[in-house]
Amino acid sequence: MTTPNGFTPVPGGGRPVVVSARLDDPLSRWLWLLKWILVIPHYIVLLFLWIAFFFVSVVAFFAILFTERYPRALFDFNLGVLRWSWRVGFYAYSALGTDRYPPFSLGPEPDYPARLDIAYPERLSRGLVLVKWWLLVIPQYLVIAFFTGGYRTYGWGLVNVLVIIAAVVLLFRGKYPRDIFDLVVGLDRWVLRVAAYAALMTDVYPPFRLDQGGDEPLAAGTGDGLWDRD
């Protein structure tokens, strides 16, 4: 079955976090100059959603600790916040990969060119929930700080630099460099995998691996990709 955005899910991939993106072509040469204004309504909504995300995660922490389960309604809400954030980031300055304004939605929005799916875990470890979000994930935090402009980078990370380069090329040549797009999405994918793990939504540790490109790579040892284009 092919989804409206041109991706075909392939069973058996086995990855708990699936990040997919499609570069729109053509893109406006100049719209990226205004997107920081256009996304202000989204940033306002996301501010409150991320506050709710924090409290939902606290409730989920105790639920996992006592029941080994992440309540499905809470999981779906936090997944929705991550999806919303990824769509806004893809439209704005985490990628600039589309000129389609992101919907105000917590749902999957299968026809939007940026997608995020996280497999719902039937059981989660009580022991891991105590340490993974602050201790086990520290090495990952150090890596993604470099990507996103965290620790001592004065707000400028590798993703920001690459996106600005792509935007300048787009302005003068009318084309988003494909190699830069693939690298940017790979960096964003790494960040989203870490976010899902730190938010207690999976026990599968994020790989220290840069998987570039709009599609998820082939799943190791399966021979199947999670998302294949027609």
Describe this protein's structure.
The chain has helices spanning 35-38, 40-67, 72-91, 126-136, 138-148, 158-173, 178-198; strands at 7-9, 17-21, 114-118, 227-229. By secondary structure, the protein is mostly helical. The protein has one domain. Residues 1-12 and 220-230 have low confidence and may be disordered.
Which series of helices and strands comes N to C?
EEHHHEHHHHE
Unreliable stretches, pLDDT < 50, 5 or more residues?
A: 1-12, 220-230
Determine the strand fraction and express it as a percent band: 5-15%
Number of helices: 7
Approximate shape: globular
Strand order of the largest sheet: 1-4
Class per helix and strand makeup: mainly alpha
Overall radius of gyration: 17 Å
Count all strands and give the number. 4
User: Please, what is the average pLDDT?
Assistant: 89
Index terms:
230 residues, mainly alpha, two-stranded antiparallel sheet, globular, disordered C terminus
